[in-house]
Amino acid sequence: MLSQKSMDIVKSTAPVLEVHGVAITTAFYKNLFVAHPELLNIFNHANQAKGRQQTALANAVYAAAVHIDNLAAIIPAVKQIGQKHVSLGIKPEHYPIVGEHLLGAIKEVLGDAATDDIINAWAEAYGVIADAFIGIEEEMYVAAESKEGGWRFFKDFVIADKVKESDNITSFYLKPADGSAVPTFEPGQFITIRVSIPGEKYLMNRQYSLSKAADTESFRISVKKEDENDPEGKVSVHLHNNVNVGDIVELTAPAGEFILDPEKTTPVTFLSGGVGITPMMSMLETVAKQQPNRPVSFIYSARNESLHPFDHDIRSLMETMEDAKYVTLYSDSGDGFISKDVIKEHSRNDGDVYVCGPVGFMEAMINHLLDLGYANEQIHYEFFGPALQLELVQV
């Protein structure tokens, strides 16, 4: 339990963290990787290079300071971050290392303003917060490995098939190398794939949505080739160009809270752009197989037809459903953006909406939904990479 004195001190530092948070987290990561370069085998190098991880951590530290006297308020965020941690194989022994360097970064950036009382208060607070993460993540690890075919941390999988879905998206079918069953997962969840790329000193991890409904045979991920983005595209380019049927990769168990509730029977709308279609495929296939009479709208935007994956699959699934609507828009054609009017005409406003795509796309779609009167609890969305703040009209 955190002392009242420490809570008061930590809360009083919130305005300082709001101003200096990114500077603190930038110093933190720099010092952390100098002292523990082995952790570069865990962290996403692209998110580091683009500053996204630093910003996300700064947001999290600021939120912890604001809510330090009511940590229950940030438990949903802890669970969301915990899902990411479990998918990367974060262990309890990593937390003291992080704590040491986070406190050191606060001292480095704030200088004399970081008094002993402030550092001691944050050390106490960090211990409480770290314990919360460790406890929640252990529950997630236990749940994952207790499933038939489940496991903890990384496991070898073999590439069973490789299928081109569009000009820039290829699917990889993955089966356990030891011949065991594939565990069930919730529609919308993701896995982490870890690869060793020739010429790269450290292992590289990327998280990809599972793009088909759960079965006992295989996982499927569908990867966009990010060959115009360096360093973001290193893993996707390697998978497209160098990873083939029969090759071995490492995976963590499915994780994530952006999931379809299969118990609901109310209407559902899937709203996606670009490679954001991938978790929607798992959700749509699950509904088609388990609830073919559930009303569904599937609204998708791509640049053009050549960059549109799964079109045939979606149409085939729609034919098996009683009340399903499929709308595709291509931005290169001039009228292909998903507007508020398109959503109003084709969405199911008496049910849930799942949104996935680039951050700018999600901001626009969620703001349209809010303008149309959708309640916050009806809107579900997923980020690629660290959870950055969306600019929404109301949340």
Automatic annotation (TrEMBL):
Cofactor(s) needed for function: heme b; FAD
Cofactor note: Binds 1 heme b (iron(II)-protoporphyrin IX) group per subunit.
Keyword field: Detoxification, FAD, Flavoprotein, Heme, Iron, Metal-binding, NAD, NADP, Oxidoreductase, Oxygen transport, Transport
Active site residues of this protein: 95, 137
Enzyme superclass (EC): oxidoreductase
Record EC number: 1.14.12.17
Catalytic function, reaction form: 2 nitric oxide + NADH + 2 O2 = 2 nitrate + NAD(+) + H(+); 2 nitric oxide + NADPH + 2 O2 = 2 nitrate + NADP(+) + H(+)
Binding-site list for NADP(+): 274-279
Residues the UniProt record annotates as site (Influences the redox potential of the prosthetic heme and FAD groups): 84, 382
Domain FAD-binding FR-type: 152-261
Domain Globin intervals: 1-138
Reductase as annotated region, ranges: 149-395
Residues binding FAD: 206-209, 383-386
GO molecular function: nitric oxide dioxygenase NAD(P)H activity
Binding site for heme b: 85
Site (Involved in heme-bound ligand stabilization and O-O bond activation): 29
Gene3D superfamilies, per database record: Globins, Nucleotide-binding domain of ferredoxin-NADP reductase (FNR) module, Translation factors
Pfam families found in the cross-reference section: FAD_binding_6, Globin, NAD_binding_1
Matches recorded under PANTHER family: FLAVOHEMOPROTEIN (PTHR43396:SF3)
Notes concerning its domains: Consists of two distinct domains; an N-terminal heme-containing oxygen-binding domain and a C-terminal reductase domain with binding sites for FAD and NAD(P)H.
Functional summary from the UniProt entry: Is involved in NO detoxification in an aerobic process, termed nitric oxide dioxygenase (NOD) reaction that utilizes O(2) and NAD(P)H to convert NO to nitrate, which protects the bacterium from various noxious nitrogen compounds. Therefore, plays a central role in the inducible response to nitrosative stress.
Record family assignment: Belongs to the globin family. Two-domain flavohemoproteins subfamily.
The name this protein goes by in its record: Flavohemoprotein
Gene expressing this chain: hmpA
